[in-house]
Amino acid sequence: MLTIAVCDDNPQFAHRLTQKLRELCAYHIPDRVDCHITPAFGLGEDVLTYVREHAINVLFLDIDMPGMNGFRLASGLRETSPDTIIIFVSAYEDFVYSSFEYAPFRFLRKSHLEEELPDTFQKVIEKCILDSEALPFETTEGEILLRLKDIMYFEGEKNYYNIHMAQGTVYRCRGTMTSVEAMVKKYDFFRVHASCMVNHEHIRSIRDEGSVYMKNGTLMSVSRRKMTEFREAYMQFTRRRFTR
């Protein structure tokens, strides 16, 4: 079940957006995806209360709201519901720059909802499908199925490689980095040097001195000959998030 929600203190706009999402779910979603639209939320506090017991996979979130604004809610969701995909929706285009800190999937302009929503909806459904994809890995303790979105990076070590998960778990497997690279080549991973491959999803920033800073605080070097290609690959990844 894919649960989609709207949080906006303007009931007229919230109703309009919710109706459009229902239409998109009815006519533009793959048959294998079961979609549910919750009643709209008018307060950020209500969303936090809801996610304590229920999952929200995708949240269309207004930024300028009384009490808990969209940025504060997004920050709170990092702790209580880190898998929720956030799409900021605002009448103020200047907010797009401030929103980057909260790593939203996209930014929608209320004044351009008709043009921007269908493409955003399609992209977020594609991401939800991709996020659910998993691959089997033969670890030293047996075969395990891992979601690709949960893998932070692969680290090679002679005839073995380690899988570093976002939750902190590390799995050890026999094999080469070349074989791993072939397994995940269609996903958002990049081999920054011979013994390390990172997931774009978990990058916090790329440093000018030739290193990449991951969201868990890990700092790793990037091969000098790969830095230009790496920056371009990461730029394309981020563009897909904010392309209108």
Mass-distribution shape: globular
Topology as H/E string?
EHEHEHEHEHEEEEEHEEEEEH
What's the CATH topology label of the largest domain? Rossmann fold
Rg, rounded, reads: 19 Å
> Which sheet architecture does the biggest sheet show?
5 strands, parallel
Query: Into which percentage range does the β-strand content fall?
Result: 25-35%
Instruction: Detail the poorly predicted runs.
Output: none
Structural class: alpha/beta
Number of helices: 7
> What CATH first level of the largest domain would be assigned?
Alpha Beta
State the helicity in percent bands: 25-40%
Question: Assembly state here?
Answer: single chain
CATH architecture of the largest domain: 3-Layer(aba) Sandwich
What does this structure look like?
Helix content is 34%, strand content 31%. The protein has 244 residues and is an alpha/beta fold. It has two domains: 130 residues, Response regulator (Rossmann fold); 108 residues, LytTr DNA-binding domain (OB fold (Dihydrolipoamide Acetyltransferase, E2P), Beta Barrel). The strands form four sheets. A five-stranded parallel beta sheet has the order 2-1-3-4-5. A five-stranded antiparallel beta sheet has the order 10-9-8-12-11. Strands 13-14-15 form a three-stranded antiparallel beta sheet, with no helix packed on it.
